Amino acid sequence: MTVGIAAYGLEAGRAVLEGVLATEVLGRGSIGGFVVFSVLDEHGQHQQVSLQCGGITALDDFDLRPGVRCAAAISSGPNRPEPLSQFLAGRDGLGLVTGHRLPQRIGSSGLPLNSSALERMAQGHAPHEAVQSETKENPEADFGLIAVAADGKIGFGNSARVQRRVDLLEVSRLEKEAGFAMLGNSIYFNNACRDHVAIGDLIWSRLTGSSSKNFIAKLGRPAPVSVSEEDWIEIDDDGGVLGIGRADPWWPAAEGITSVVYSGMPVWRNSSLAGTCLTEVFATLGNGLATPHASHQYHFAVRRS
Description:
Blueprint: E1 3-8, H1 12-26, E2 27-29, E3 35-40, E4 46-51, E5 70-75, E6 89-91, E7 95-101, H2 113-122, H3 127-137, E8 143-149, E9 154-158, H4 160-163, E10 168-174, E11 179-185, E12 187-189, H5 196-208, E13 214-218, E14 223-227, E15 232-235, E16 241-246, E17 256-261, E18 266-269, E19 272-277, E20 281-286, E21 289-292, E22 299-304
Parallel strand pairs: 14-16, 15-18
Antiparallel strand pairs: 1-5, 1-11, 2-12, 3-4, 3-5, 6-7, 7-8, 8-9, 10-11, 13-22, 14-21, 15-16, 17-20, 18-19, 19-22, 20-21
Helix pairs in contact: 1-5, 2-3
């Protein structure tokens, strides 16, 4: 269960949010339920939000202030034990510790594993030293940790027990001015996207301002649908769907929930081909409109042309 991401650098908060969102869009399994999201703000103060259900999409309107260069999140299925803050530890001016599996379990130090790693950091240990100490001293505990310090140093690792699993997710990139690490398990991906490679690419592009091979678009509000000789989607500069053309001879028909963003559809922006849909969106189709439905993910992945 669970995915954890920590990042440092330009727009670290956005990078983490988009990393979890991309995991929800591209993956299936233990995702899209509870979320804990933490940042060290522009003053180094620890700020945290959490929710039990709905995944990162439910934080879509979260007001992320500028100046955040240190951020972390943990997410999995819904309805985890309260308080959700136990799953992600943070301290003003010091850093954040997230993870996957059960990072809040009590370890050999008598503290929760994530809090114990944070305490080691407070005593002067680098993040990778703090994480290695926890995994070495608790080899059969069911956890992996990612620690990020306020100065940008990142450490991550799994216990020996977790490392024996055959469903692990791990991707990272650490450089002087920016870095991130992502750990997860029990999440299975769309093969067209090279799974976690695409997610890491999206995170890195946000951290550094570089271009990614893929991007996330959304049917965030009702969009007009028309009969067309070929499928197409038009999006705006922010990735929102402006209109959809359908060559499917079944439509128009009775109103209902169906695939309105279809895998392989060409995506257009400002009269230029922007890319190709990698994932689908199911929504209510009727009265000439595709309307997002609360029971379905409304974001979708696009491979750039």
